[in-house]
Amino acid sequence: MDPDEFRRRGYEMVDWVADYLANVAEYPVNSHVEPGAIRDALPAAAPEHPEPFVDVMRDLDGIIMPGVTHWQSPSWFAYFPANSSGPSLLGEMAAAGLGVQGMLWSTSPAATELETVVVDWFVDLLGLPEEWKTTGPGGGVIQMSASDSSLVALVTAREVATQHAPLDKLVVYASDQTHSSVEKGARIAGFSHVRIIPTDAEYAMDPGALASQIAADRADGLHPAFVAISIGTTATTAVDPVRAIATIARENDMWAHVDAAYAGSAMICPEFRRHQDGLELVDSYTFNPHKWMFTNFDCNLYYVADRRPLLDAMSILPPYLRNEATLSGKVIDYRDWHVPLGRRFRSLKLWFVLRHYGAEGIRYHIREHIQLTQDLAMRLNNDPRFEVVAPHPFGLVVFRHVDGNEATTDLANRLNASGRVAVTPTTLGEQSAIRVSIGQTTTSSTHVNALWEMIDNAGDGTDI
Amino acid sequence: MDPDEFRRRGYEMVDWVADYLANVAEYPVNSHVEPGAIRDALPAAAPEHPEPFVDVMRDLDGIIMPGVTHWQSPSWFAYFPANSSGPSLLGEMAAAGLGVQGMLWSTSPAATELETVVVDWFVDLLGLPEEWKTTGPGGGVIQMSASDSSLVALVTAREVATQHAPLDKLVVYASDQTHSSVEKGARIAGFSHVRIIPTDAEYAMDPGALASQIAADRADGLHPAFVAISIGTTATTAVDPVRAIATIARENDMWAHVDAAYAGSAMICPEFRRHQDGLELVDSYTFNPHKWMFTNFDCNLYYVADRRPLLDAMSILPPYLRNEATLSGKVIDYRDWHVPLGRRFRSLKLWFVLRHYGAEGIRYHIREHIQLTQDLAMRLNNDPRFEVVAPHPFGLVVFRHVDGNEATTDLANRLNASGRVAVTPTTLGEQSAIRVSIGQTTTSSTHVNALWEMIDNAGDGTDI
Question: How far apart, in Å, do the first and last CA atoms of chain B sit?
């Protein structure tokens, strides 16, 4: 396809995306295809001969779209948002068009340097410790997902700790609300001991229980090595007491890693920063602009307070990657900051987003989402049929039907089956509950009011 | 940015990309900015207020572009290609626009099912073992990079082997030409023993040396667990003897993993499949459509012969990810096939590429690249000033100046400093050498002839 044909088809695709975004509110939010339906509609073998582009677009609409779940719908209240925006899509197009591989500074200096600038900007934007800037001992890097960042944190912590104790003596600590990626990362990194610390009535890790478990493990000859601290858990957006846990970690020479994958975006508003008090005591931190900052997946930020142990754990320099710039020590090679070698020019879309919205624009939307969430929580709290089951400091409210698990699950299923909204049925301990996450780019009071009406009707058993 | 503004800006961005691709041959291939130049040209803080889109585009051209190295240039002969194409970029736009999160089947069924169809197509396209299809005991998945796939293979192998021996007794084997991602992956997975097996005169792993090392390790009470087999090494595209090594691995109950990251694309042409003879004996395999199959980064395929140990190693199911489809066992949840939880709709761009080119179109371009490489190798071989230092079965030729290391390095530096081409200076053992990789989408005989003329002139010490 030559550049001129790409130009024509590109306009068509921009129209397709623009029309999709203009009409996404009209689609059934969850796809209701049966397992295997899309697979069965596609041929069993790849095409031998070239096919006209119109046929591809026809099948995109006819075969693929019925199987798409509409994460960009303003009535997307499921999981967490994976929101997006025009400037992000445009930055993504530019990055794909350039097609550079930013594995080393020298393989495209702008890809590295824009990334450095943007991750340093975020230190100020989110009120993170100044030492995490690249100009200090720390630094940030863009990765694919918070799972990748937690894995890197775990591996770095393991390398530090195995200087004092063998791997099979090391212990990882997480709460019963910590994201599953920490347990998965611990398994991948080869840890054999993962302790699950109980949480309090607000689903925050109990520092006293952590300290006791650490003491018990020490008494058993084990070596506490890593603790995961959540700012905004997946189940309820609970906030662990960062300062208390990080202090315990310091006293015990452990690595403290903060997972703020979802809630990190809220820290662009100073009024929420009390939830991250104590960050100057932690070793690493991660948050996802691709969740709630108008930047399409994938875009994850990972910071360390001290980059040396990270580089010690991740650097390998074979002959085919040696180059003058790397050997000079004057540049950053971000391949040494994570697992993969190859890297997209991901900072470009984040830069487009920051410049289009400005910090004040992002704050405006985040605050609006949080306000809509608080309003919905109040309605639920004021209604005797429903019960809000956890604090809701950000854009998520979790509630249940007072009639119990069956009524709650039934309500969630009816909401999802309507095609008009998507929510996430879950369980908290023994209780069924419904997660409503408000953070899609175009979600407004209209959509939240419509959701409330459906809950209100369904809660009575009447049609939604 | 509402859909109408996105439409307008989207046309502008399509024009920008189309113009870039039309003119990319005119840019100096390597960026020659000084370290820090791009960083210094950008503000120290993020914008507080929204900025006009024209300002962003102005800075993209004025600040970012001088720091871009042009991987999409037809005169890109460095590293390996990271080639791309119109249909790939269009598929990427569609995927970004939809913005779905394909972590579970239920979170967007089409994202999972198209991926299954496409990875199964590739089993036939590349002549891989039929058992690797999802309908058999194996299966494929799309990941970000070959580093990620090698890590997953190493972790799975570790989980299998630790049923028989402790981690600190396990041994990983690779050749002195194996990609650095295997050593890095072994370190991340916590292996403490990595044996580097010597290669023969053609840079292929010596199976006899492997067998001897395994026997010696067994005699020392260690437990051989994993061997990496390369089809197309990074330094020279050498091919390890798959059948011989995989047979040794089977005899020793070891995991055999094939890294065909670059050369896998060539297997779409049946005449190159002799290089992968023995694949039915291996446990896992990876190749990168994002290198040499007209699919923009990132897009890596990972196959296993038996998916059970992979799923045993990678599955974790917290309450917020439980859903009817997953519990029914009728669907695939690809998050259980790799490290990260979130996933892009990457199969879309690969599907666009396959339909646009058809298998025959891809074969045509791959064969052309390989022919151009063979022609250049012949010219170098026929010229007494140069020496081709390794076999060149695919699209890479590695050569040196007969006057020695200094003359070779000087030649590479002069080629790169010209701005008209990019090549990779490297070392093979004690010898300096130059890698010329021919595989960019638009590279033709014109560009390779121009490169040869430059080598010809520079080889004499005259101006290039």
Answer: 49
- In this prediction the pTM is 0.97
* Residue B33: closest C-alpha in chain A: A109
Spatial separation of the C-alpha atoms in residues A159 and A152, rounded to whole Å: 11
Question: What is the dihedral sign for C-alpha A368, A371, A377, A380?
Answer: negative
pLDDT of B464: 72
Nearest CB to A14; choose among B7, B101, B110: B7
Beta bridge partners of A139: A304
Q: Which two tokens stand for residue A117?
A: 């600038």
Which residues does chain A have within 8 Å of residue B110's beta carbon, measured at their own beta carbons? 31, 33, 38, 63-68
Q: Is pLDDT above 80 for A97? A: yes
Minimum distance, in Å, between the CA of residue A462 and any CA atom of chain B: 24
Structure tokens at B452: 């040869």
CA A208, distance to chain mean position in Å, is: 28
Looking at domain A358-459, its CATH architecture is: Alpha-Beta Complex (3.90)
Stretch (H or E) spanning B143: strand B139-143
Question: Left (φ > 0), alpha (ψ -120 to 50) or beta: where does A237 sit?
Answer: left
Q: Dihedral sign, CA of A273, A275, A281, A282? A: negative
Of A237, A182, A241, nearest to A206 by C-alpha is: A241
Q: Return the pLDDT at A150.
A: 98
Query: What H or E segment, with its residue span, contains residue B255?
Result: strand B255-259
Using CA atoms, how far residue A390 sits from A220, A400, A408, in Å, is 35, 10, 15
Do β-strands A396-401 and A431-437 pair in parallel, antiparallel, or remain unpaired? antiparallel
Is the pLDDT reported for residue A459 higher than 80? no
d(CA B109, CA B52): 38
Residue numbers in B near A179 (CB within 8 A) = 318
CA distance B271 to chain A (A): 17
Percent of chain A with pLDDT over 70: 100
pLDDT bracket for residue B419 (50, 70, 90)? very high
Tens-place pLDDT, residues B337-350: 999 999 999 999 99
Provide the terminal-to-terminal Cα distance of chain A, rounded to the nearest Å. 49
pLDDT tens string B57-95: 999 999 999 999 999 999 999 999 999 999 999 999 999
Test A316 with B98 for CB contact under 8 angstroms.
Answer: no
Q: Which CATH class is domain B100-344?
A: alpha beta
Identify the band that residue A84 occupies on the pLDDT scale cut at 50, 70 and 90. Answer: very high
The complex scores an ipTM of: 0.97
Segment A25-46 mean pLDDT: 96
Q: Do A98 and B7 touch (CB under 8 A)?
A: no
Q: Which of A101, A291, A324 is the mutation pick for testing B, counting most B CBs within 10 A? A: A101
Beta partners for residue A174, in sequence order: A196
- Residue of B184, B290, B331, B423 to mutate when probing chain A, most A C-beta within 10 A: B184
The token pair at B86 is 């119109």
Instruction: Work out the minimum CA distance from A182 to partner chain B, whole angstroms.
Output: 10
Would you state the pLDDT for residue B462? 73
Query: Residues with Cβ < 8 Å from A131, sequence gap 6 or more?
Result: A137, A138, A280, A305
Task: Check residue A211 and give its pLDDT.
Answer: 98
**How far apart are the C-alpha atoms of A303 and A285, rounded to whole Å?**
5
- Please give the CATH topology (third level) of the domain spanning A3-69: dopa decarboxylase, N-terminal domain (1.20.1340)
Question: Cβ-count burial of A62 within 10 angstroms (0-12 exposed, 13-18 middle, 19+ buried)?
Answer: exposed
List helix spans (H) across A289-346: 289-292, 307-314, 324-328
What pLDDT is stored for residue A316 in this prediction?
Answer: 86
Domain boundaries, chain B: 100-344
Q: Do B167 and A166 touch (CB under 8 A)?
A: no
H helices, E strands: number in chain A: 15, 11
pLDDT digits (tens, 9 = 90+) for A113-131: 999 999 999 999 999 999 9
